[in-house]
Amino acid sequence: MNTFAGRSVLVTGASSGLGAAAVRRFAAAGGLVHAASRDQEKLAEVAASCADLPGEVRFGPLDVTSAADCRAAVATTVDAYGRLDVLVNNAGRHDFRVTTDVTEEQWDADIALNLSGAFHLSQAAIPHLLETGGNIVNVASVAGVMGEAYSAAYTAAKHGIVGLTKALAIEYLDTPLRVNCICPGGMDTPQAQTISVPDSADWELIMRVAAKRGLMDADSVAAVITFLASDEASSIHGSIQMVDLGHLAG
Ligand SMILES: NC(=O)c1ccc[n+]([C@@H]2O[C@H](COP(=O)([O-])OP(=O)(O)OC[C@H]3O[C@@H](n4cnc5c(N)ncnc54)[C@H](O)[C@@H]3O)[C@@H](O)[C@H]2O)c1
After folding, report:
1. Is the CB of residue 17 below 6 angstroms from any atom belonging to ligand 1?
2. Which of 50, 72, 75, 154 has its CA 20 to 30 A from that of 35?
């Protein structure tokens, strides 16, 4: 059964979109959730929306571009619930930029947000996950396995998330720790609604990666996260799961 009763779950980027949907799914399955992100007001709304669910939702600040923040979020979760069973590395942001216009600062910021944060959180979480036989679910993107125009840093970072998943899966092969990754296609979230596109962009290049079946509901993708994090997925380790309405099927 897909239950998280008594299990502690840290979800990053939990204030909206997929992260918020994952928080609700874990709480609905009885999980003890720490919802972490930058926007405390929105996190409070997410926690309030879970008030009637069987699990518990606490929340707190996290900027994944800070390694110290990543360590603190893991420590806060363990302090609150006495254990850590699941880490969901979900925080991320995609903006289209013409490669020759990208500044050094933008490149570094994109990599820090979309890749390094997941490493620092995993590094801090692994000792606790080894104690509980827990697992990590990373959120990459279809951009983790294919190229996207005007997205050099985002695509490189999401390929990095796929690589991080595989590297940890092998490094911890002899332990109970599981590490998996999902690669969503387009979801109808604030990210999709606020993405910036340069004036000079060629829309045909951008639309090459648009899914023919439209945007997915974040909750349907969150269901895959909770499945991979559950005991029902006990045989799944080091897996890169496409969740893209068949976009990359061929
Ligand atoms: N929406 C899509 O079409 C789509 C497609 C593929 C992959 N993804 C990935 O899914 C994940 C969730 O995206 P979403 O669509 O729900 O977007 P969203 O904008 O709704 O949510 C992103 C979350 O990340 C948080 N965040 C941003 N910067 C942060 C930082 N520095 N520190 C901590 N938290 C930060 C935001 O506050 C928010 O809670 C991201 O990793 C994104 O790259 C999204």
Report:
1. yes
2. 154
